Amino acid sequence: MWQLPTDVPQTAIPNGLQLVEVPAGAPLEEVFKQWKESAAVILEGMLTPEEVDRVISELEKRLD
After folding, report:
1. 60: helix, strand or coil
2. The model's pTM
3. Nearest to 5 by CA among 61, 56, 58, 62
4. How confident is the model over 14-34, as pLDDT tens digits?
5. What's the pLDDT at 13?
6. To the nearest 10°, the Cα dihedral for 57, 48, 8, 60?
7. Which of 5, 7, 43, 60 has minimal CB crowding within 10 Å?
8. Residue 61: helix, strand or coil by DSSP?
9. CA of 51: how far to CAs of 2, 31, 57, 58, in Å?
């Protein structure tokens, strides 16, 4: 069964930049500022734990 890796930092991207974690309720200006600087951003707290479980379950079905 496919599993999300737990031993690899989830904030690493190929060019070596570290992605910034921004709270989901942060002002859009902050989200887009970070996005523009790094080409990506992690929105922390965007999904509930139940939603995360559902997303992982759906991904596992397709990756197994």
Report:
1. helix
2. 0.57
3. 56
4. 666 778 899 999 999 999 999
5. 56
6. 10
7. 7
8. helix
9. 19, 22, 10, 11
